[in-house]
Write a structure and sequence with these properties.
The protein has about 70 residues and is mostly helical. The chain is about 80% helix and about 0% strand. Helix 1 crosses helix 2. The longest helix has 22 residues. The protein has one domain. It has four helices and no strands.
Amino acid sequence: MGSSAASDSQAPFQRVKGSTVRLDPLVVEASAEVDRSLLRWMLGLSHRERLRAASNAAGALSRIRGGPA
């Protein structure tokens, strides 16, 4: 009974994954490399803290590229 419920809850995920593999296999491959600890950290921040972190990252990337900060 427990494994059936688990497989039922995975069914939508497997359908989406199958469609994504057919449309763009690189997306599925890249998703395996996602740093989930970074996602958990970001979700632990408030909206304002997330915006500040994103703004700081954008500024750092701009400076690295030699553009305006």
